[in-house]
Amino acid sequence: SAVWQMKTENVRVDGLTGSGFRAFLGSGDADGPTFLNFDNVWSFNHGKYGIRVDTAGGHVENSFMRVINSFIQNNTLGGIDYKGLIATFENNGFTQNLGFGGLRLRADSGNNHAIRVIGNDFEHNAPFGIDIESEANAIVENNECLQTNARVIPFEGCFKVGGAGGTSTVQNALFRNNKVRVSAGFTPHTAYDIHVEALDTQIENTLWD
Questions:
Q1: Tens digits of per-residue pLDDT, 102-111?
Q2: Which of 3, 27, 81, 167 is the most buried (most CB within 10 A)?
């Protein structure tokens, strides 16, 4: 089963015991759901994830997901958990999410492909703002990672690249024009936590504030 051409706009979901939104590929088309759009969505205070997109065993990928102008806050297992092809996350706020932190590109079978993370604000997520477990060809640019709130200790870093183990790799990831602002009380802390699975990772123009 799969969903095509779904748009969720101007919706606030708050305080569920599960996830705010979940798209699950269980059977049928091996390349769906596709064209999932979230615009001006608030997903707060859930017992699991703000948004989760995942698959059952034996299926390939979700694809063409777009999350813009949205606010993902205070979710216990993490903000947005994505496994799929061709996704854009732009102009969003990720705040006080735990579990894996703000945004995770999850490692299962195969890699995520063609992911853009542009112009987002990652504040007080723990352990990481972005956790890229598996990916090929990602652009992460013009984002801010802010950590000044003792509420979310243990904080480990802003951007995690690799580290999932197994056959999962991160290939050709570009981090450009990102800003990192971490208060002195968070020691030690890391802007980029890069593991052996990260291949051809490029970092340009990081501003430490």
A1: 999 987 655 6
A2: 81
